[in-house]
Design brief:
17 helices; binds Double cubane cluster; Rossmann fold; four-stranded parallel sheet; 52% helix; 2 domains; alpha/beta
Length: 388
């Protein structure tokens, strides 16, 4: 039974440690015959796996531990997320990769798409052919056929059959999770927000490693209620004068928490994440009535990632979040050699500056050598926002 806990550090710690704790939970479930699918991207429709009774887990690595190993095969001037994820696979150091019976990749950026070819030599890999535009009939047709192809691959590899009814039930369950994560991050519309951006990030990131739907829902509900109760009781962990920052760009987690830390150590607070760790994943609900495969295809295709061209949905979400969270400045985190986000950074900067919203781009990798430089740049940015 989950009880209300207004000691917020304990509430957040349960999510901060979720990735580590999930290793053992998954090992237990595997030993009992549970099928597991690993994935890399927000475009991957997890409802297919849920409907088939499978567990799914994110495989994007978040540390530089295996980059040297990866660079024996991959070029060094490649995005660290790709190198690190591949490095964990070839060195067999990621338990989630090890437990994955099927790994689902997708043709988002070129680096990932080509890495999956190499990954396919050591793992059972299926690659979704994602169109790079969203609003043509051809793109919808292609993407729906790719969702069908994935369903058929899952049915074949795991010897199951997936009904429309199971898909609708899976959409419903995933929508509940999305709604709860959105409710949680929307608590930070309050002034001052009831949690730091680092704590918010740890819940958003950690929730993906809670594998039991009912337990995850109960824990998220308890976390939301605990944060609200603490606020009502007068707890104010964040200063009212802290400048309110939205973070956009590449996905965050693990070592890249350093970006949030330098922003918050400079005296600001991160109130919202527009990226795949946050609102890009949880902002919308997948329609539950009608043909489930079409609903899933149409829902996922509208994700506003920089690999889409044009990419209007990112600007729409960004604008809405800036208004809703009363954002005073936007920080974009781009990973080194991520060309789509690096090029789109110019569009984002121009778009925000037209609305007089200050913008800072921080490029980083999975190392820690640049923390001083990041802190200097974040500090100068926050100082400008603090000037009345
Ligand atoms: S939907 S953001 S999870 S692709 S791996 S694009 S950082 S060069 S992660 Fe992503 Fe899906 Fe888009 Fe979201 Fe750049 Fe690196 Fe590529 Fe990356």
């Amino acid at each position: 039974m989950i009880t209300l806990n207004t000691e917020l550090p304990e509430v957040f710690a349960g999510f901060a440690e979720a990735r580590q704790q999930g290793f053992l939970a998954m090992k237990d479930m595997k030993e009992r015959g549970q099928g597991v699918v690993g994935l890399f991207c927000t475009y991957t429709p997890v409802e297919i796996f849920m409907a088939a009774g499978l567990l799914s887990v994110g495989l994007c690595a978040t540390s530089d531990e295996t980059i040297a190993e990866a660079e024996k095969t991959l070029p060094s001037n490649l995005c660290p997320l790709i190198k690190s994820s591949y490095g964990f696979a070839v060195s067999d150091k990621c338990p989630y990769m090890y437990f994955s019976d099927l790994v689902v990749g997708e043709t988002t950026c070129d680096g990932k798409a080509k890495m999956y070819e190499l990954l396919g030599e050591i793992k059972n890999v299926h690659v979704l052919q994602l169109p790079h535009t969203q609003n043509t009939p051809e793109a919808h047709t292609l993407w729906r056929s790719e969702i069908v192809r994935l369903k058929e691959r899952v049915e074949k590899d795991f010897a199951v059959s997936i009904s429309d009814e199971q898909l609708r039930a899976a959409i419903h369950r995933r929508n509940i999770e999305r709604a709860l994560l959105k409710e949680l991050y929307e608590l930070s519309v309050l002034t001052p927000p009831p949690m730091s951006g680092l704590d918010q990030l740890r819940v958003l990131f950690g929730a993906q490693f809670k594998f039991n739907h009912e337990t995850k829902v109960a824990e998220l509900r308890a976390a939301i209620d605990s944060i609200k109760a603490a606020y009502t009781a007068g707890k104010r962990p964040i200063s009212e004068s802290a400048p309110r920052i939205l973070v956009t760009g590449c996905p965050l987690g693990g070592v890249t928490e350093k970006v949030v830390k330098v922003i918050e150590e400079a005296g600001a607070v991160v109130v919202a994440y527009e990226n795949c760790t946050g609102a890009k994943q949880f902002d919308r609900q997948c329609p539950e009535s009608g043909d489930p495969l079409t609903n899933i295809a149409d829902f996922y295709l509208q994700i506003g990632c920089s690999i889409m061209t044009p990419n209007p949905n990112r600007l729409e979400l960004l604008d809405r979040l800036c208004r809703q969270f009363k954002v005073q400045g936007v920080v974009e985190m781009t990973l080194q050699a991520c060309h789509s986000y690096a090029v789109e950074a110019h569009t984002i900067k121009r778009h925000l500056e037209a609305q007089k919203i200050p913008y800072l781009q921080l490029e980083t990798d999975y190392g820690t050598a640049d923390i001083g430089q990041l802190a200097t740049r974040a500090g100068a940015f926050v100082e400008c926002l603090s000037v009345p």
